[in-house]
Automatic annotation (TrEMBL):
Transmembrane parts of this sequence: 131-151, 194-211, 259-280, 292-313, 333-351, 371-389, 401-428, 448-472, 517-539, 559-581
Key word Membrane present: yes
Species, as recorded: Streptomyces demainii
Phylogenetic classification of the source organism: Bacteria, Bacillati, Actinomycetota, Actinomycetes, Kitasatosporales
SUPFAM superfamilies: alpha/beta-Hydrolases (SSF53474)
Name of the protein: Integral membrane protein
Biased composition (Polar residues): 784-793
Coiled-coil zones: none
C-alpha cells in the first residue's frame, strides 16, 4: 500500500472542505498532581510532540499527528471512536530539574504566599483588600529577615563570636584555629571574625536572589493573551479575577519584591555586624571616629530599612492589563545600595580594636524577639482585615470565618521559626559537644529560640489530640455508612470485609472537609505559644530550664525536659528537610513526590514573597490558552478541555482567559476536581460560588465527574440550582462489589484516580460534544501545516 505523503494529505483535506465535511473534534487532556507521561495519558506506545519544549508540551498519538488534514473517514484508526486526543504534560514545571529539590528549604515562603490568595471575597478595589495584601507582603518580608537573621545567628554569633572566641571551643576545631584569640593573629579580633562570618549569610542572600531571578526569567515571562479591561467600569471590580489579562503575568511585582527582599537580606547582615560593633564603640573612652562612623552606618541602615518597606508597600499586583514595564531604578539601585551598606559595615567591623574581646552571646539577640513581635502584630492586623471582609459578604463554606489567610500566615511564621531555630539549635549542639544548647556556660543560641523549643512538644501534643479526635470521627462515620453501602449494589451478596473497606474509604475521604479544624487550632496555639515564648524570653532573659529552677520539682523537671526535647525536635526538623532535599536531588521518584507538594502550593503567582518557588501556572495557563485559541481559529472544530485533579484547575483558569468566540467552541470536562472542595473554600475570592457560577454561565457547557471515595475531588455545588447541569451523580466506586463476568477479579477502589476506567466517562464526554454546536471549516485559505515534532515513543 502506498504511503501517504503530505501532498496527498493536503489534497484530501482540500477535497473534504469543498465537500463541506465538518472539522474534527479535539480533546485536550491536562493531568493532575504528580505528573505522568504522554504515553500513559494517550494510552499509546508511540507519541509525538506537537508543540512545546522539554519543560511543558502538547503530545499526540503518532498516527494522529496530521488528523486535521485527512477526510473524516480517515482521521482515526478503525474501532477507535471519539475526538482526536492531545495531552498537555506540565509535570516538569514542578519536578523536572534536580535542583528543584532545594525548594523544600523555601517552604515557609511558599506558605506565606498562599496567605495572600486566601482572603475573603470582595471588590478588589476596596481599601480593605489592598490593606490585607499589604500586611501579607510585610509578613513575607519579615520571613526573609528571619531566615537571614538565623543564618547570621549561626555564622556570626555561634561560630565567629562564641566558639571562635572561646579557647575551649576553638581548640578542638582546627578549621577555627586561625580565628582563636589565643593565636593573636590578624583574624583574632572579634570585629574581623564577625566580618568573615558575614560571608555565609551574604552568600545565602545572593543565592536566593539568583534562584528568584532565574525562575522569574523562565516562568513570569510567558506572555498571556491580552484582553483590554476598563477598570473604571462598575462591573469590572466584581468580574472574576482569573478573567483578567494580567493575572498570570507577575513580571513587574516579582522584580520589585525581589529587589526589596534582597536589600532586606543585605541590611539584616549589615545590622548584625554594626549593632555589636557600635555597642563596643559607645563605651566610655571609645574612639571618636569609630563612634561617628557607627552612627553614620546606623543612619544608613535606618534609611535603607525605610526604603525597603516603602517599596514593599508602594504597590501590589497589576491584573487588569499585561504590565510588562520594569522599575529599573528600583530593582537595580535598591539591592545595590544595600550591598554597599553591607560592604561599609564589613569595613567598619574590621577596623582594629585591640581591646575588644568576645564574651557571652553576641549583643543584639533581642532582635529575634522584635521580629516575632512584629510578625504577631501583622498577623493580628491581617485577621482584623479578613474578619471585616468576611462580615461584608459571608459565605457558608468559607473556612475559619474568613481567617484562613491569617492562620496560614501564622503557620508560615512558625515554619520559618522552626527552620531558623533548628539550624541554630543543631549548630549549637554540634559546637557544644554533648551539652544541651542553652544549658551551662557553653555555646548557646538566643534565649527566644530555647523558649520556642520548649513550646514545640506542647504544640505536638495539641496536634496529636486533634488527630485522635479525627480518628474517632472516621470510625463513627464509617459505622454510620456501613448499612448504606449495599444500596449501591442491590443484587450482590454482602461481604463484611469488603463493606468495611468501602465505608472506611468514604469516611477517610470526608476528612478533607475537616481540614480547617486542624489548621485553625494549630495556628491559634502557635500564636499563643509564640507569645508566651516571647514574654518568657523578654522578661527573664533565661532559658526555660534555668528560669524554672525556683519552681517545684515537677515543674522544673517538665520545663527542662520540654526544652531538651524541643531543642532536639527543632534540630531534627531541619535535618529532615535537608535529608528530603538531598534524597529528592538524587532520586527522580522522590522528586516527583515533592513535586506534588509544589503542584498544590505553587499554582498561585508570587504576589507576596519573591523567593517562594515559582508559579507554574504562569507558564501552563498561557500554554493552554494559546493552544485552544489557535487550534479553534485554525481548524474551526469543537474542543473539550479535559482536566483531572489539579489539571481541572488549570483547565478552568485557561477557559477563563480565552475570548468569548473561542469559549463558544469549548466544553469543560473536570473529574476528581478540587475546584470547589479545596479552591472554592480556601480561596473564595477567586474560586468562590459567584466565580464558579460565572464560569458555568460563560463556558458553553461544563460537566464535573466525582466519587464519594475521592479525598480531593468533589461536586461543584453551584448556588443557583443549576448544579445538576454541571455535577453528575457520583461515580460508583468500586465498579463491582464482588466478582462478575466483567470483573472476574475484585474491582479496586479507585478513589482519586483512573476516572476513564468507568464506562460513564466516555458517555459524559460524548454528551458534552453533542451539546456543542456543529462547526463549519474556516472559509479562508488552507491552514498551514501542523508541526509534528519528534517521536517520543
Amino acid at each position: 500500500m502506498r504511503a501517504h505523503t503530505p501532498a496527498d494529505a493536503t489534497e484530501r483535506a482540500r477535497t473534504a472542505r469543498k465537500g463541506g465535511a465538518p472539522p474534527p473534534d479535539l480533546e485536550l487532556l491536562v493531568h493532575g498532581v504528580g505528573g505522568t507521561t504522554p504515553q500513559e495519558m494517550l494510552d499509546a506506545p508511540c507519541t509525538s510532540l506537537v508543540t512545546g519544549d522539554e519543560t511543558a508540551a502538547v503530545y499526540r498519538r503518532t498516527e494522529d499527528i496530521d488528523a486535521e488534514r485527512r477526510p473524516p473517514e480517515e482521521r482515526q484508526e478503525p474501532g477507535r471512536e471519539g475526538p482526536i486526543r492531545e495531552a498537555y504534560v506540565w509535570c516538569n514545571l514542578t519536578s523536572g530539574n534536580s535542583s528543584r529539590a532545594l525548594w523544600l528549604l523555601l517552604l515557609p515562603f511558599m506558605v506565606a504566599n498562599l496567605a495572600h490568595w486566601m482572603r475573603p471575597p470582595a471588590d478588589r478595589r476596596e481599601r480593605t483588600v489592598r490593606t490585607y495584601g499589604l500586611f501579607v507582603r510585610l509578613v513575607a518580608l519579615s520571613l526573609t529577615v528571619l531566615l537571614i537573621a538565623g543564618a547570621c545567628e549561626v555564622a556570626l554569633d555561634l561560630i565567629a563570636w562564641q566558639c571562635a572566641g572561646s579557647a575551649d571551643c576553638a581548640t578542638g576545631k582546627s578549621w577555627l584555629g586561625f580565628l582563636s584569640p589565643e593565636n593573636h593573629g590578624w583574624w583574632s579580633q572579634p570585629g574581623r571574625r564577625l566580618a568573615l562570618g558575614a560571608v555565609l549569610p551574604g552568600a545565602l542572600t545572593g543565592l536566593l536572589w539568583y534562584l528568584s531571578n532565574r525562575t522569574w526569567s523562565a516562568y513570569e515571562s510567558s506572555p498571556p493573551l491580552e484582553r483590554p479591561v476598563d477598570e473604571s467600569a462598575p462591573e469590572s471590580g466584581n468580574r472574576p479575577a482569573l478573567c483578567l489579562p494580567g493575572f498570570w503575568y507577575g513580571r513587574r511585582i516579582v522584580a520589585r519584591l525581589r529587589a526589596a527582599h534582597t536589600a532586606a537580606g543585605f541590611l539584616t547582615i549589615a545590622a548584625a555586624l554594626t549593632l555589636p560593633t557600635t555597642t563596643y564603640d559607645r563605651r566610655p573612652g571609645g574612639s571618636g571616629p569609630q563612634d561617628a562612623a557607627g552612627w553614620a552606618l546606623l543612619t544608613l541602615l535606618a534609611l535603607g530599612a525605610l526604603a525597603v518597606v516603602a517599596v514593599v508597600c508602594h504597590r501590589g499586583r497589576s491584573e487588569t492589563r499585561v504590565d510588562g514595564e520594569l522599575d529599573r531604578l528600583t530593582i537595580t539601585a535598591l539591592p545595590g545600595a544595600a550591598l554597599g551598606v553591607l560592604v561599609l559595615s564589613v569595613l567598619y567591623a574590621g577596623w582594629s580594636r585591640p581591646g575588644w574581646a568576645s564574651a557571652g552571646k553576641l549583643p543584639g539577640n533581642q532582635a529575634f524577639c522584635a521580629i516575632a513581635i512584629g510578625e504577631g502584630v501583622l498577623i493580628v492586623a491581617m485577621a482584623v482585615c479578613a474578619l471585616a471582609l468576611h462580615r461584608s459578604a459571608p459565605l457558608g463554606r468559607t473556612p475559619l470565618y474568613g481567617l484562613a489567610g491569617p492562620a496560614v500566615a501564622m503557620l508560615a511564621c512558625g515554619l520559618g521559626s522552626v527552620l531558623a531555630g533548628g539550624i541554630a539549635q543543631r549548630v549549637a549542639d554540634w559546637l557544644d559537644g554533648g551539652a544541651t544548647p542553652g544549658e551551662g556556660p557553653g555555646i548557646a543560641p538566643p534565649v527566644l529560640l530555647s523558649w520556642l523549643a520548649t513550646a514545640i512538644p506542647a504544640l505536638l501534643l495539641v496536634l496529636l489530640g486533634l488527630l485522635l479526635i479525627f480518628a474517632v470521627r472516621v470510625w463513627r462515620v464509617r459505622n454510620r455508612l456501613l448499612p448504606t453501602i449495599m444500596d449501591g449494589y442491590p443484587e450482590e451478596r454482602p461481604d463484611a470485609v469488603r463493606t468495611r473497606r468501602i465505608a472506611s474509604t468514604v469516611a477517610r475521604a470526608g476528612l478533607t472537609d475537616s481540614a480547617p479544624w486542624i489548621v485553625g487550632p494549630v495556628a491559634l496555639f502557635t500564636l499563643l505559644f509564640g507569645a508566651l515564648a516571647v514574654t518568657g524570653a523578654w522578661a527573664t532573659d533565661e532559658v526555660p530550664g534555668r528560669a524554672a529552677d525556683s519552681a517545684p520539682g515537677v515543674v522544673d523537671a517538665a520545663a527542662q525536659t520540654a526544652q531538651a526535647l524541643g531543642s532536639w525536635l527543632m534540630g531534627l526538623a531541619f535535618l529532615m528537610l535537608i535529608t528530603w532535599a538531598r534524597r529528592a536531588y538524587r532520586s527522580p521518584a522522590a522528586r516527583r513526590t515533592i513535586g506534588i507538594l509544589w503542584d498544590v502550593g505553587t499554582f498561585w503567582p508570587r504576589a507576596a514573597h519573591p523567593f517562594a518557588p515559582p508559579c507554574y501556572a504562569e507558564r501552563a495557563v498561557p500554554d493552554l490558552t494559546w493552544r485552544m485559541e489557535t487550534w479553534t481559529r485554525r481548524y474551526g472544530g469543537r474542543l473539550v478541555i479535559s482536566g483531572h485533579s489539579q489539571g481541572s484547575v488549570l483547565a478552568a483558569a485557561a477557559v477563563w482567559q480565552v475570548d468569548p468566540r473561542t469559549r463558544g467552541q469549548v466544553a469543560l470536562l473536570t473529574y476528581g476536581s478540587p475546584l470547589e472542595r479545596l479552591y472554592g473554600r480556601w480561596f473564595p475570592a477567586y474560586f468562590g460560588p459567584a466565580q464558579l457560577l460565572s464560569l458555568h454561565r460563560e463556558v458553553r457547557c461544563w460537566r464535573n465527574l466525582w466519587r464519594c471515595t475521592d479525598p480531593i475531588g468533589g461536586p461543584i455545588r453551584l448556588p443557583d440550582g443549576s448544579g445538576p447541569e454541571v455535577d453528575c451523580d457520583p461515580f460508583k466506586d468500586p465498579l463491582a462489589y464482588g466478582r462478575t463476568p466483567e470483573h472476574p477479579l475484585p474491582a479496586p477502589i479507585l478513589g482519586h484516580g483512573d476516572y476513564q476506567a468507568d464506562p460513564r466517562f466516555d458517555r459524559e464526554r460524548a454528551g458534552l460534544l453533542a451539546r456543542l454546536p456543529e462547526q463549519t471549516p474556516p472559509p479562508a485559505e488552507e491552514s498551514g501545516q501542523m508541526s509534528s515534532g519528534r517521536s517520543s515513543g
